[in-house]
Amino acid sequence: MTASVAPGSDIAIDVRGLTKSFGGRAVVKNLSMRVRRGQIYGFLGPNGSGKTTTIRMLCGLLTPDSGEGTCLGYNILTESRKIKRHVGYMTQRFSLYQDLSIRENLEFVARVFGLRDPAGAARASIDRLGLAGRETQLAAELSGGWKQRLALGACILPSPDLLLLDEPTAGVDPKARREFWNEIHALAADGLTVLVSTHYMDEAERCHEIAYIAYGELLARGTVDEVVAGAGLTTWRVTGDELQALSIKLAATPGVDMVAPFGASLHVGGRDAAALERAIAPHRSDASLRWTRDEPSLEDVFIDLMTRAKDNFQ
Amino acid sequence: MSGDGDFPGLFSRFWAMLVKEFLQLRRDRVTLATMITVPLMQLLLFGYAINTTPRHLPTAVMLQESSDVGRSILAALRNSDFFDIRKVVSSEVEFDHLLQSGEVLFVVEIPANFERSLRRGDTPALLVAADATDPVASGSALSALGSLVKTALTRDRFTPVQDDAPPAFEIRSHARYNPAGSSQLNIVPGLLGTILTMTMLIYTALSVTREVERGTMESLLAMPIGPTEIMMGKIAPYLLVGLIQATLIVGAGYIAFGVPVIGSLTLLSLLSLLFIAANLSIGYTFSTVAQNQLQAMQMAIMFFLPNILLSGFAFPFAGMPAWAQWIGECLPVTHYIRIVRGIMLKGSGMEDLRVDALWLTGLMLLAMLVAIRRFRQTLD
Ligand SMILES: Nc1ncnc2c1ncn2[C@@H]1O[C@H](COP(=O)(O)OP(=O)(O)OP(=O)(O)O)[C@@H](O)[C@H]1O
Ligand SMILES: [Mg+2]
């Protein structure tokens, strides 16, 4: 792996105040983030929150309206050509050539990046992806999961220093997802930095750090534990009968910020622990219900962040 | 990894693009089929003359004597709408050069002793040389010349007024380059130009918008490849396609209509390549400006119409008003038709076609420059 500039810095992505609007509507607002080298950084947020837009600004595909920063030590505003040389960007929607075969697609990438032996590089990548034997198949004929795998293969083919993966595992089966993540962790161990957007909670928990963005605004960041702790959410777990009716009643009670069914139980959460206790007090005497204090899950935290953001912006 | 603007890297990226385009083209069976059928069909369908009355034919007069009769004829030609007297010459060499280079289509020669023979009633001959590569234009001009001169001589009282008097002079015409006046001789070069224009424009007009619509542009732009390499890589494969089409048309023109290539085939191929590249560049420019494939297609068609109407293909170039001629000059096909008529029918060499070749080069470079500057390197 070629070590690229950024003298003495172990920061791969360092951006401040990124803002982007489309047709007068701000889609990313004043976003700052910092990703250390070798880190796997999860990027989470509801649909339309600006994840893809942010990633595109990082690799020079979109020009921020304001803000500045560096990617691998290169200025994102003025040195996007250099950034592109060291970044592998996997788009949310498959964007390799459907009418080229697996091998032809990989060779194309290898040539564009000026690799010495494009055919050899493509062959190595095919073996690594476990695609040997189907390299002459057209990309259009691949199943969704295989397309994702091919796209990842194309991204890592030129040995980038930073991977930007936009929902790389959407629609991929659990086994393939696990292999995918094993591969990502192996790459990170070699010093590659990975920024990955996802909607899966289990994937978020596989990241070294995460950032949560909603309506264009970065609402939380840190390790999973830090984010959960930072949310200051108190949760209770209820089991018993007639949970559906209870859930409707609780959701309307002040002090309860979040009610979510969780298997055979219900998660009830609130930011103000005392207010929450007052809210659930009438139901705690109900003999058919069993109440226990519980740790909030990452999902609880995200849903709470999202509802709060919605209250603020809509 | 390679450096930023280094040549091997540049070439590698260009090559990547070129190979990709070739592979995609190879898989596109419809395009492959139309590549061959469209030019042949058009050539056979439109291989008919398009009849029009020419005006303002570029003409030269060669005066071998200085006489009142000569001046009278010259004045009559100058006053007529048919002819546009560009030069009055007195040497044979100049005369040949004017026709060869296409500067004039018509030379009227008033031989020495014309006036004396006329007064003596010897029925002297006016000599006319016409560039018959455009037979429609030169044919009707020849017949116009006779009555024009007759009226002039009568009016200026060099010849008697009676209608039944025997003709006082004769016109001895010499149709150059296309003595039989075959209209296909003229149509084939025109068709070669227009067919190539249409097919080449469309191939590249769709190329960038197609990548945008299929979503592949996002990956492409995220890679370290620049507008120049993308453009070159997308144009290069179609140079070959265009050359194949040109060969087909010239071959079919020879077999079906017996249109020969008198001049150099190599020169014809080279200048055809230049013309093909110019059109590909223009089509590519549309592709970088248009938002989607439909728009690109519409632009190509909008551009294509004047190519038919103002290039000298459908109507003699010399007969068009000045503004239309100016537009015509800015179209590659106008120059290409001159080049092809020159090489195929007159055996012209590079020396004669220099100006048209320069125009083609200029138009091509202009289109490329616009395309590179207009190419959107971001998704904004
Ligand atoms: N090119 C564009 N023109 C106009 N609006 C855009 C454009 N790209 C994105 N948007 C808008 O910006 C907002 C954020 O989009 P973005 O794709 O960044 O969201 P996302 O977080 O990636 O969502 P998802 O999880 O669904 O992929 C959306 O409302 C979208 O409609
Ligand atoms: Mg997205």
Describe the structure.
The complex is a heterodimer of chains A (314) and B (380). Chain A has 314 residues and is an alpha/beta fold. Chain A has two domains: 38-60 and 80-223, Rossmann fold (3-Layer(aba) Sandwich); 233-295, Lrp/AsnC effector binding domain/regulation of amino acid metabolism (RAM) domain (Alpha-Beta Plaits). Chain A has eleven helices and 14 strands. Chain A has helices at residues 51-58, 80-86, 102-112, 118-129, 144-156, 174-189, 201-205, 224-230, 243-251, 273-284, 298-313, and strands at 11-22, 25-36, 40-44, 66-71, 74-75, 87-90, 162-166, 193-197, 209-214, 217-222, 234-240, 258-262, 265-270, 289-294. In chain A, the strands form three sheets. Chain A has a six-stranded mixed beta sheet, sandwiched between helices. Chain B has 380 residues and is an alpha/beta fold. Chain B has two domains: 57-176, abc type-2 transporter like fold (3-Layer(aba) Sandwich); 183-374, no CATH class. In chain B, 65% of the residues lie in helices and 9% in strands. Chain B has a five-stranded mixed beta sheet with strand order 2-1-3-4-5, sandwiched between helices. In chain B, α3 crosses α6, α7 packs antiparallel against α14 and α11 packs antiparallel against α14. The longest helix of chain B has 31 residues, at 227-257. In chain B, 43% of the residues are buried. Residues 48-53 of chain B have low confidence and may be disordered. Chain A binds chain B through residues 2, 56, 59-63, 81-82, 84-87, 89, 91, 93-100, 104, 107-109, 111-115, 118, 138, 154, 158-159, and chain B through 1-2, 4, 8-9, 12-13, 15-17, 19-20, 23-24, 27-28, 214-219, 221-226, 378-380. Adenosine-5'-triphosphate is lined by residues 22, 27, 45, 47-53, 92 of chain A.
